[in-house]
Batch of 4 targets.
Target 1
Amino acid sequence: MTKQDAAGMTRRQLYEAQQRKRSIRIAATSTALVIAAIVVLVPLTPGWEKVKRSFFNWDTLVDTFPKLLDAFLINIMIFAWSAPAIAVLGLLIALARDAKSPALFPLRIFGAAFTDVFRGVPVILTVYLIGFGIPGLGLPRPWNSPYIWGSLALILTYSAYVAEIFRSGIDSVHHSQRSAALSLGLSERQVMRDVVLPQAVRNVVPSQMNMLIALQKDVSLLSFIGPVEIFRQAGVFKSLLANFTPYVGAAIIFLIVTVPATRYADYLMARQMRERR
Amino acid sequence: MAKLELRGVEKRFGEATVCDGIDLDVGEGEMVCLIGASGAGKSTLLRCINLLEPIEDGAIYLDGTDISVPGLDPQTVRSRIGMVFQSYNLFPHMTALENAMLAPRRVRGVTRAAIQPEVEELFARFGLADRMGNYPDQLSGGQQQRVAIVRALAMRPEVMLFDEITSALDPQLVGEVLDVLLMLKDQGMTMVLATHEMGFARQAADKVCFLKDGRIIEEGAPDAIFDTPKMDETKAFLARALK
Ligand SMILES: Nc1ncnc2c1ncn2[C@@H]1O[C@H](COP(=O)(O)OP(=O)(O)OP(=O)(O)O)[C@@H](O)[C@H]1O
Ligand SMILES: [Mg+2]
């Protein structure tokens, strides 16, 4: 039997509890010090009063926040139709790049070229080229809408990245799974669909979550070709009120969405790491 | 005519010849054990029989039909020959039952309802009736390997290949898997095993083949191989393996 003290803890548990308390004390003290330094030092800078007025104006924030939220609905809308399209196209491109049959060789080349091109060009350039270029062809309404072509630019770029992630997921499935499935008489296609893909997709969920978060932010790039989404709306307010606070408001709205999503993705990633071990 | 006949089977990986002219007859209902040091080519030979590896030269006959013709559709052959691996290789995203029903449903095109009674019966026969709903990571190694055997049997194969199926198991779980092999033998299954279980090979095999460097150096009845080996290589190997 181990020796226990009054609280029913072993010597080791007692020691660990003490250590934990000590770490918490140190972490709390150092955090408080850093915050105090910022609160005390930043207002001492010569430009602080001006910055405070133009970036952290409470009244402006309260006045513009609802409109910013409205504009954010446009971001959500663009995100909502782009994300599924990206998932489907990304998966198709991943499969095309891994196609083995010679008849599908052109598909493989196309898949490779596609990912090279769209991963190689900055998103904003793709948005400009497609978002201004295609409506420039003089298409009739609604086909000249920047929503359509801007979304397409995002879909193409993100599909290229998402396809590569799916491919790494497919590679991560051990080849013995393929052997086992083939030995049962399944065809290559059935092996892919029933055995490899389900495991591959599951393996890359955390990475794809991170792509979704990046996409959510990059939707704002469409503001450069027309749609009045949250970033553009904040810009409108800035010009109107000669104040930068709406940008801070927009940043807050983004953070409300992306911080929980990022935490969740990290949680999934950590859980997967534990399962692998 | 034997159920399975290998004639001059040759397999190369690049420069390395891993199967170097293998001749082997496996009669209907026979159990043949392949023994030999690590790297002798046992696994590769089994993979060749199941057409998981194409062979360079020679021929493999199943019921007298050459199944090693280049370009032949391997699916039909594989659905007639079951294979079980050292590392179980169950599909981790499916329950034991789903693992076993996947191939019949996809390859034979039968419905879930049509195949389920037969597959459940298999699970029951091998003492897994209460494990069908479990995922592989909820099963012990011995249970996983028995599920893998059931999964192969669900295709109603005519020949079964076993590649060191007890090597990854804790010693106390080996017995339950070997018992399954004895049951299959009683039922008249034709089987080829690569194995390091010398005691089992001696007790259960109809024929034992000793492989070295991709060749069958010596073959014969278990007693002959284990008690009166003729070749020096066999003697040396057994001396080490039985120590
Ligand atoms: N896919 C492959 N590519 C190249 N070489 C291979 C491949 N598979 C097997 N080999 C080689 O072929 C030889 C025989 O391997 P094999 O796995 O068949 O031996 P084994 O008798 O099953 O050994 P063990 O008892 O360790 O399982 C080894 O030298 C191995 O390195
Ligand atoms: Mg082997």
Note: Chain B touches chain A at residues 47, 50, 52, 74-76, 78-79, 81-83, 85, 87, 89-93, 102-103, 106-107, 148, 151-152, 155 (CB under 8 Å).
Target 2
Amino acid sequence: MIECRNVSKTFIQKGSQEVPVLEDVSIDVQANEFVVILGPGQSGKSTLLRIIAGLETPTTGTVILDGEPVTGPGADRGLVFQGYMLFPWKTVLGNVEMGPKLCGLPRDEARDIAMHYIDLVGLNGFEKHYPHQLSGGMKQRVGIARAYANKPRVMLLDEPFGQLDAQTRIFMEQETERIWQTDKRTVLFVTNNTDEALFLADRIVTIEGKLPGRVQRTYTVDLPRPRDLTGKHFLEMRREIIDASVLTL
Amino acid sequence: MSQEATCSAASSSIANETVGQVVDRGPISLGRILTNRWFLHTVSIVAFFWLWDWLARSNVLGAGSSVLARPHEVLEQLAVLTREELAELTLWGHVWASTQRVVIGFSIAAAIAVPLGLFMALNRYVNAIVKPLFDLLKPMPPISWISISILWFGIGETSKVFIIVLGTFVPCLLNAYNGVRLVEPELYDVVRMLGGKRRDEILHVCFPASFPAIFAGLQISLSIAWTCVLAAELVSARSGMGYIIVQGMNLSQPAMVIGGMAVIAAAAWGTTLLVTALERKLCPWKRKIVGL
Amino acid sequence: MTAYREVVVRTPLALKILPIVSVATFFIAWEIVVRTGVVPDTMLAAPTTVTQLLFDKFTNVDPDGALLHQHAWVSIQEAFGGYFLALAVGLPLGLAMGWFNVAEGLARPIFEIIRPIPPVAWIPLTIFWFGIGLPGKIFIIWLGGLVPCVINAYVGVKMTNPTLIQMARTYGASDWQIFRQLCIPSALPMVFGALQIALACCWTNLVAAELLAADAGLGFMITMGRRLAMPEMVVLGMFMVGLTGAFIGVIIDRVEKRLLAGIRR
Ligand SMILES: Nc1ncnc2c1ncn2[C@@H]1O[C@H](COP(=O)(O)OP(=O)(O)OP(=O)(O)O)[C@@H](O)[C@H]1O
Ligand SMILES: [Mg+2]
């Protein structure tokens, strides 16, 4: 479904310096698979996701989506941004229905779709609120609903829960799993949290901690869902991943 | 930021509330009454008018009544002006004459400068052409254009409107320009991810995001507009509040001068409130900014 | 970290040339418009004429009674007089209003009465009070600069992080100590912002004051140009006002950077 072939990215910074951020990253994602990209801060995870989204062009390599190379951003991929990136001048409803409207759906239809996804993320009753009236978790749900409302074939989530407290985070993870199971899609989920990765993923791709980011290993997680955060297999896998990733730091 | 804050209208601020919490609430005592805000305000206003009155009565500033009028004389003078015509217009006529100039000049400037500012921010080439010219003309205060505008347009309405347009053009354009440049760039990415084109980026991100900055620019412009219209009317006019002030000066009637000042202050204050209200209405998402 | 490879980032040539082209076009068009008589020379003078007058004015006092740099010097004196007075009064007042309730309670109503009156409107009164000499103009300029000084200093203090204030209180700091050691430092960026804004206000009001009541100064030169129907003098005066203003602005900017750098250290 998504195929990153030898993607490398080098930024040119203000002082005219080249900063290599990604090197030779190859990832394969199957249809309806939940893949988590796990890596420490500053390892180029966001950059990778932006490349897949089409917001950045890779320096070398290509991203192939359903057999077609990605050349730019498009509504077939939905990106949930690391910061919430809601439009402060639009209400919750306005934010969510924006995608369908931009894709040319008529007003009523866009509204219905938006209401459906606002419902799905559990925000009914808050349609008329402005983003500054919402809590962090609620904002993130709006971001997720907004990406979903466009019915993209691929969902790209960039550390969506990075700014939440531990409890809300676990709750949101459960919600994400629920939403994914109600509305199956291919999901590429970026995080720096091993538990989160293990809880959600079908497959985990770890990225090395030093720039340029490289793929370190791939783990297949075939534990039954919903997963028990304290189960024996869960903890074993957790230890394995942590041991392997600490070595590279 | 500082410019925005400088010109934001009077409103209670966030900081005001938070810093205010620090003041502890004790039982009512003499000290508390003496430091009560409203009490102090009253004292201050009474003292202001009393001092003014005393200065006017007691010739400290110079010879006799031709230097400063007493407060009640100013009020009487204003009352007279509402009844009797000065240069064929009552007080309201003069207020309207000035306001009209401000509104026309201000509208023309806003209508040109705001789109131009947005355009400059959106297109590097437009920016490269317009910015240097703008930088060249910007340091000249609008008031310094009065003379040349009289040479060009005579002393009629056109020259006054021209000054106002020039004066208000700068802040309108600058704020629109900066408003767009300060937009969070990832918001453009959001629109593109949702399937939007360049047009949508401008429509859904640039415009709304620069709204608050544009409004701040409009507020600054408005106070400049009043200064400009007044200066232009002081130099040459047959109507307007500046004319009242000039007449007061020529007739050595301080009451008329101060009356004119009071009226123009009120008018400036009123238009500021109007723009603030409009902003509240049009930008419901914007939280209060700290201001005096 | 490894030393990254250096690369050269180019800006398109057009972007470098366009500003020059645009300014050049402006001046050439201006020259042509006047030379060909599209705009009569009673209304506008060509840039070359203005330049000629510029050099002439350094040695010739006619017809307005003073040399160019004398006019400029008078204006600068007035502007700086009013400016520094405005800083000296406005900043402490604004800081005090921001922190001390009594100061705010007493000063705010008067400030709110005076604020919406454009400083220009005071000109007739100051003529009554001080005549058309230096003090009257300094008063006008002072009024113009005062308002932004007070507002910025006030807002600066109000933006002090309330948590820090509460922390200081728990350490038993007095009002005065908090004001000195917490509020003033945190207001400094806003205060420095006021330096530029106040200067711009002062400069504008200077021109207004000189247009109406003066016997020397750049504003006076502009007025004389109009009275004598010499557009070249009007234009020269305007350019000098702009140039001097911009020059002072640059100096203030330097000072501001220097001072701010000192604080950061
Ligand atoms: N547009 C850009 N220009 C220059 N450098 C960039 C740019 N975007 C990212 N970088 C650099 O790339 C590196 C990786 O950034 P990236 O945002 O991809 O990391 P990340 O893994 O998402 O980190 P985090 O977990 O903190 O979000 C950083 O060092 C950053 O400075
Ligand atoms: Mg990131």
Note: Chain C touches chain B through 78 residues (CB under 8 Å).
Target 3
Amino acid sequence: MNTLRKLEILADAAKYDASCASSGAAKKDSSKGQGIGSTGGTGICHSYTPDGRCISLLKVLLTNVCLYDCHYCINRRSSNVRRALFTPEEVVDLTISFYKRNYIEGLFLSSGIVRSADYTMELVVRVAKLLRKEHHFKGYIHLKTIPEASPELIIEAGKYADRLSINIELPRHESLQKLAPEKSLVRTRDAMQTINSKISETIQARKEMRKVNSRAKRPSFATGQSTQMIVGADGSNDSDFLKRSEDMYGNFKMRRVYYSAFSPIPEPSVVLPLKAPPLVREHRLYQADWLLRFYQFKVGELTTEAEPNLDLDIDPKLSWALRNRDLFPLDINTAQLEMLYRIPGLGVRNAQRIVRVRSYHRVGLEDLIKLRVNLKKTMPFMICSDHNPAKLELSSEALRLKFAPPPEQMELDFSSLVPMLEADTKEDLKAKEAQQKMTAIAGKEARHGEF
Amino acid sequence: MKTVVIEPTYEAWRDAARELLGEMVEPRNVIWQARLPRDAGEELLDFSEEVTRPSANRCHGFKVSREFMQLAKTVGSHRSGRQWSLMYEVLWAMTYGNDKTLLRRATDTRVRTLEKMRGMVSRDIHKMRAFVRFREVMAEDQNGEAREHYVAWFEPDHRIVRLNAPFFRKRFGGMNFSILTPDECMHWNGVKIRYSEGVSKDYAPEEDELEDLWRGYYRSIFNPARLKIKMMQSEMPKKYWKNLPEAEIIEELIRDSSDQVNRMMKEENRELKQRPNNKYLDHLDDLNRNDIEE
Ligand code: SF4
């Protein structure tokens, strides 16, 4: 099989991993003239495919042969997909050739499991080691880690990689048992813990060395880990997902939890027949995730026992505000910053700007227009120098209708492909605006979220 | 009224602005004009070394915040030329006007315009880093030996080649390359950056044998079940497509996507296959049993 054919098979097999992040690495570069590559700035998307996703890394599998039988995965042993296998040298070659032409800024390597977890992990580590040691490659390396691999191998992987990841796949133990019988939540969390403690340990060690001005070689280790969950493949509700995310951010300091709407794959399994969830659900989860990380919301505020799922029609912040109408309208000239974060339509950055501007003069509508605040969304919830909505001038129900899109846009399943595409692009535009606002704040990896 | 003619660079503006400040020339009495870089004099032409002009010699003791310098440096690359007078106005207000916090007032019209321009230049810088595509050519070194050289063609919106040069030098340190643009070209030989006059696209190589592999990758990493064309276009506007080898197949991918999805939707479910005989899987079974007991 020639390289092109292998690449097609092994890239195709890798595309269901949502992550393409290439930021957050330690600063390094090749200006000394040996090798190529640099990391440490904001991530660069070198291209976009028509599915709206960014290409920043060469994302491939070493092989799509796999012993496991995860039913949502095209590579599981029960699928009849064509199989291919790269040698570590082939992957190294491709990475360097693509990098030199500025197609990519790094490699994201994962693999189906052949023979055993350790055997596979060794091959994956070999690629990274060749790149770093033989080719002095300073670009970004993201390695997918196999939880069952021995901790020594995982730690070796971390020495060469900028990022490690293990996909938790599904939020609950029962779902994992059913859909990925070989995997285990316990082992996955253990491996995440191994990575997390090594990351903190390395940061600590480097700090100490800096303090005493040591000139010895500083230990290097991946600077972050991330994970992914598949949405819509099992019966878990949004609250299950968000609680698992809270676990991931809280206990393992994940840089990022990715949500990937279960997407039709060729070779569907009898255990998991093909039925795609609305893509907008994935989008709402990203928004909620954003609120957890940057807006100081708690899972219990975004979903409730009575409503364990996010509202698909309106964003989770608006939805929260409508459930808490009595807190509004807030006076933006006096309210605390943390409360400004909670006003629908007002992002973190603009909230901070308002706080700055109001120390010079009282903020009015004109200022908000200049800051390009979404007034339509914001006005019912705030008071400023020249605006004061009659308290409860609109009921929550009326407001909800005002912001919720007409119902037909929401039929986003694959049985009606055409309306889906339309609605999806509208959703995109919103996500896009969102992105522009959000990149600036926590930016770097922003792909979703606008409020 | 005073007309000041400068090269369209931040450094030239800074030198002139210092002088004007020293002479207390009010912003409303200055007309700023940019000279085209081609007329700027010999030193800009043909493979000149990186020149830093002596600039501190006419310092009149004005203290300007680092924040402003950074803003001015970036905005100085804006192609419109509208920035020069605005920058001087703001500089005047911050010095003679004693308005030290001006830059922090995001609602001031002048600051907003400058910030907007900064946004445009920054975006352009970022897009250049993303969309430059190198093509390999074989060159000869002094000893007549063949060595790799990479050449890219790019058409930036603003005059950003020099602002971006350090990035490319750091990223491709061990590689010889040239980036050609209509304004100015940058060359790196592993030791030193050199600049030369802008050229036309004809000077750039037309293909690279790796491009088929790259397009193959682009095709396979695309998920036809999630078409989001607008999202792609807002991040990768059509104006860049002509210089991106992968863009050739975008139309085709979009056209074929619904067929591909329909085919997927019609696929039969696959039955489970027998678990192969494998020691490692036996071992996993044991582990999983223990998990549950825990
Ligand atoms: S382990 Fe599971 S998810 Fe990973 S490649 Fe194998 S079947 Fe797919």
Note: The longest strand of chain A covers residues 224-231.
Target 4
Amino acid sequence: MAEYIVKNGFVVDPTLGVNCEKMDIAIKDGKIVETTELKSPKTIDASGMIVMAGAVDVHSHSAGPKVNVGRNFRPEDKLNYYKAKSGVKRMEAGFSVPTALSSGYIFARMGYGFVMEAAMPPLYARHTHEEMRDTPIVDEAALPVFGNNWFVMEYLKNHEIENVASYIAWLLRVTKGYGVKCVNPGGTEAWGWGMNCVTPDDPVPYFDVTPKEIIKGLIEANEYLRLPHSMHLHSNSLGEPGNYQITIDSLKCAEGFKANSDFGRDQVLHHTHLQFHSYGGESYGSKEFESKSKEVMDYVNGTDNITFDIGQVTLDETTTMTADGPFEYHLSHMNNLKWVNKDVELETAAGVVPFIYNPNSFIGVAQWAIGQELALLTKDMTKCHITTDAPNAGPVHRYPRVIKWLMSLKARNQILDDCKYGDSVRSQCYIGEIDRELSFYEIAQMTRVGTSKCLGLSHMFGSLKPGMEGDVSVYAYNPETDDDPEKIEHAFGNAKYFIKSGELIINDGEIISNGHKRTFWVKPGMELTAQVNRDVTERFKKYYTVTQNNYEVKEHHYVPNPYVIEVNAA
Amino acid sequence: MKKVELTIKQQPELYLETENITPDAFAGKSADEIAALNVYEGNVTHKLGDFFSIAGTPGATAADTQIVVNGNLERVKWIGSRMTAGEVVVESSMDMYAGAFMAGGKLLIKGNAGHFTGLGMTGGELRITGNAGNYLGAAYRGDWRGMQGGVLRVNGNAGSDVGSFMRGGEIIIGGDADVHVGTHQEGGKIVVKGNAKSKVGGQMVKGEIIVFGTIDVMMPGFAHRDNVDLEVDGTKATFKRYEGDLGERHPKSKGAVVYGQLYIKQ
Ligand SMILES: [Zn+2]
């Protein structure tokens, strides 16, 4: 493999304590090495540019059945947004739901080396893996959803944590999944009865467990299995005015739990797209709705076992898609656009609805403001991660715009000044009182250090220490001479150079390789309990529309280039 | 107004996509620069000058530019699409997407127009002297934003799915319309001077459809309310007024429910 030396860049790496210092970074055999280990490296001149480790994404939706439904039912999403094939790079298309190929290229251009597909319906794990396989360059993994799963709810009803853990272990092995995702705990199952679980204390019909019991049970099982990542939660009543207390009550479920894992994480609960869960007021009206980001962050900042991502609204036309079936139903009745609803047998459900976050509306800009506030009110930036819950709050290619807003008060004020409800947003939210501007160092904490630690991958990603994966991003922004927020957005969206696992992917802004993407999955050490073994066999015979043999994700076809993380049982 | 005359000199083997034949693309350019604009045949990119001879010079702005296109253009798509000002005269029948997403100016097609003509148009005047194909003034596949403004006038007949998802503006058809008129219509006005077949106003939320002739099969979701005298496109007559589609959602305005209005001449 070629050797590279990235010379003279302004290196930003919180794991090395380095903040915009001129340093050379050496890459050999796919890994970062000491510069003295190189024999005849190719030189990449990064003079006047920012150099960071490859970025790590904790939560986006770019592969799987609901993403593909979004692609299929939104041909208009591709109408004005496509790029022709050029060189080795294949054709790209789609604004909010890009094709699998586009997704890989978009992540590479932003300098991302690892991406977590945040919701995999186990029954459709094969589909999810096929799309991840076809997404070039970036390493990926997927989180199967457990929060409305019949097995989990039945075991939890009887407080059988060992059986929950055993079932999770079995499902991760069979679906080649990475960790435990929980979407609208209990509420999606209730949706099958035309109901919802609005608060964490609403019992799930028939199963008679509450969302709180599901959240706590999944945290306990996750730590029992000592998994690399923590339980990953989308709590109840997403998007509802006044939901912040429900959010805090859900976060409190983590109290008393401590991380039990060899993979370096501290958190036992990752709350995703916290922006959608930090609302006050009783309606979306400009006199009613208000931000409760400060209240939520007062709680989060005081804990040491919770991380979160923001789910920043980007004020675009986009496509919402979630396993929160009842929420998508509400949304489709708010905007009267097309709606897809899907039940996934014993496991989960999903909905898809196009949505326009209007930059000239009160509610759109208030939601935008709340996302910014959460990040700007965070004390330890490694706990707070940049996402747009792509494509729910905005397309994934907007990450660089989110970075621009967080780094520039001027850019934020422009959004408020351009909106005719800007003053209402300033008075109903906290955005007007905050003048903090994040630094490149803090952006690296949010997009590299914090995310890789949260996923249990800090031994591989998020750092430029020798021995780490050879993922290096070079952005054309000079921290000494440049002072234009627009240039920040452009630089972070168009990496000048990107090296992935030691291979040069982007050279002088042009994609020159489709890389060798890997799919990560976690193999827990725990064996099947007799009870779970019996239940799984019986349920497949009795209820599933597929046999157990046609359920498993067979590695050679679906995961041709796996990276398996084996976890020892307790 | 300055004039550029294009004459097709070679017929494409496939169909030719010419979204660059607009006053906006031509304005301020030399004949050589116009000849160097891209046209597309399948997945191959050609130059406009490979297929058209070019005479005259455009104005400095789109508003000051007229384009006349001569020859047989039955295998040419997208003329006048996204134009915002100026004038285009097509001296021939044309294939699909003429004036698609047009926002202003005037487009005249002397002949028949293919499917998806005036797709999602937001303004301007589009006239067809012959017949129009299917999806006239409709929304792009999957989209909910059909014609939103401007005037679209057809002297002859129109195909199926006229004004699907129409949101505003006016479509006037001199002759007959095929099935599906104003499906999902949510604003604007469709006038059919001849007859309509069936499925008129299916899932219509609001807006108007006026039929001078007959409707073979009425949608069950329309209720006869009263009879009214109207002047439509210069003709005064009495029309039966229906409201619908009663099976669809309907917004409220000043406390009253707003329905789609369907008028049939007595
Ligand atoms: Zn999500």
Note: The pocket of zinc ion is lined by residues A 59, 61, 118-119, 272-273, 389, 392 (CB under 6 Å).
